[in-house]
Write a structure and sequence with these properties.
single chain; 450 residues; Rossmann fold; TIM Barrel; 2 domains; 6-stranded parallel sheet; 19 helices; binds cobalamin
Length: 450
């Protein structure tokens, strides 16, 4: 039996103006090139759970319309896609089914809207893939695939334990095509931000992978690629400080460069920052979301956590970067109760904080999120179902304190300002002169931009 693992792997913006702008702004182009070559860790993980007598091939489709013919010769295909490319994933699924190839669909979008996906698939997997995959394979072999496998249900009963997570099959990749590989050290997040569309939407309980397993994955990668750059595909790597310290200590011994996402509370833990400073950590991506109380109020739904942290934002950037770790600060435009002033407020925070890097996105109500449900109830979704617009850069809802057109043009202008060659150089200049490079040099790590 032969299974094709097909990753819909494009990065995109729907609006032609945004695409054009993205292609011309130096800061944007650089990050775009880096992330555009990440593989699907979800599919590599499922490949790792597939019995060895089944042939598995891994393929990526960045744009179905640019492809003459999809890869074929399989008994079944497992297709993974996020929201923005799901329309292409459904079209591809229809093509495979027309050829008599069984189609298995799963992932974040399909888990949120299984009824939408079902007409395009022989089977739909809801939730984390690992608990469902062995039954999918057994049933596939017997020619008795069920229309649906609900891992949400299974996870609620038994709870999928990351200590039992399989080794992803990195060896399926055509490695020279990638500039970094991903490893997941945990799933979910203890916070509950209204817009969060990451693995929290399928892993309701925050859970960590044992550090030994993470290191085993990194060593497997190092067998294939001596000095890899690793991106941790986590929602919030250092939410649990004790686990985070153990992880950072272990990573420090691996002589790798790495990047991850976490929350601002990492700045409270001097000990952890010290370990990170010498661990090969190139950059931390932190969701500040907004530099104002109006933007943050109510955004984290458990304890209004981000709102309470606002007065420590500036100091946090300074403390983290003082340890030789650059910060990529993320801001969301179009949050409720923020108006035209928000564009300047973000620009000012970026300037005054000394952030090395910045990422701006438009608030996006991805299906499966609390934001999607609320904006739906408030009749504020502009293009429900038109998923190609769900890119984080295109506006899909009616904002509260400006018009849709104002959000679109304000976002474009802010991107133009922040990612111009001049602004990008100005942000990076202090780090080129100062200690970040020196520290890296003395730690013996190769110099790779995050
Ligand atoms: C790596 C990554 C990418 C890579 C993706 C490589 C790939 N093909 O998977 C690249 C750079 C290409 C990418 C692109 C984009 N990304 Co991205 N990306 C991530 C990131 C950082 C990690 C994802 C990851 O590896 N998770 C770990 C794996 C193990 O989890 P998983 O994929 O969910 O898989 C599990 C289950 O979902 C399930 N599963 C998944 N697929 C399948 C398939 C089958 C058949 C089965 C049975 C099960 C199954 O089993 C897996 C194991 O449990 C996340 C943020 C984060 N911190 O998580 C954002 C994230 C996934 N990206 C996001 C977005 C918005 C985008 C872009 C739209 C950005 C843009 N404007 O271009 C594009 C969209 C691409 C598309 N195809 O639609 C959003 C997705 C929200 C959503 N619901 O769509 C996220 C959550 C970030 C965010 N800000 O919210 N991204």
């Amino acid at each position: 039996m032969r299974i094709g693992m097909i990753a819909m792997s494009g990065t995109r913006a729907f609006s032609p103006e945004l695409t054009k702008l993205g292609l011309t702004l130096p800061g944007f182009v650089e990050r775009g090139k880096v992330i555009a070559s990440l593989p699907s860790l979800g599919l590599l993980t499922l490949a790792g759970l597939t019995p060895p007598d089944i042939d598995v091939e891994y393929h990526e489709i960045p744009d179905l319309d640019a492809l003459d013919a999809p890869p074929t010769g399989f008994d079944a295909v497992a297709i993974s896609s996020f929201t923005a490319q799901i329309g292409q994933a459904y079209r591809l699924a229809d093509q495979y089914r027309a050829l008599g190839i069984k189609v298995i669909l799963g992932g974040l979008h399909v888990s949120a809207l299984p009824d939408e996906a079902a007409p395009h698939a022989d089977t739909v997997v809801i939730g984390e893939g690992e608990p469902a995959w062995p039954s999918v394979i057994d049933d596939l072999r017997r020619g008795a695939l069920r229309p649906r496998y609900d891992a949400h249900h299974a996870a609620r009963l038994e709870g999928f334990d990351l200590a039992t997570a399989p080794m992803p099959r990195f060896e399926l990749l055509d490695l020279p095509r990638y500039n970094r590989l991903t490893v997941q050290t945990q799933r979910g997040c203890p916070h509950c931000c209204e817009f969060c569309a990451s693995s929290r939407t399928i892993a309701w309980k925050y859970k960590r992978k044992p550090v030994e397993n993470v290191i085993a994955e990194i060593r497997r990668i190092k067998k294939l690629w001596a000095h890899p750059f690793i991106e941790l595909a986590d929602d919030n790597t250092f939410a649990d400080k004790a686990h985070g310290r153990r992880l950072a200590q272990a990573l420090a011994k691996e002589d790798i460069r790495w990047f991850t996402e976490t929350d601002v509370s990492i700045a409270d833990d001097e000990e952890l920052l010290r370990i990170l400073g010498d661990s090969g950590c190139a950059q931390l991506l932190i969701g500040f979301e907004s530099p104002t109380a109006a933007g943050l109020d109510g955004l984290e739904r458990h304890a209004n956590w981000k709102h309470h942290r606002l007065d420590r934002y500036m100091r946090a950037v300074e403390r983290i970067q003082a340890h030789g770790i650059t910060v990529n600060g993320c801001f969301v435009l179009g949050l409720d109760h923020t108006g035209l002033e928000s564009f300047d407020e973000v620009a000012r925070f970026v300037r005054e904080s000394g952030l090395y890097e910045v990422q701006i996105t438009v608030q996006t109500p991805f299906p499966g999120t609390a934001l999607y449900r609320r904006l739906g109830d408030e009749q504020r979704l502009l293009y429900p179902g038109d998923w190609a617009r769900y890119t984080l850069f295109d506006v899909n809802f009616t904002p509260t304190d400006m018009t849709t057109a104002e959000l679109e043009s304000g976002f474009r202008d802010l991107a133009g300002q922040l990612y111009s060659a001049r602004a990008t150089r100005a942000r990076r200049h202090p780090f080129l002169r100062n200690d970040i490079r020196r520290r890296r040099g003395s730690a013996g790590h190769p110099s790779v931009e995050a």
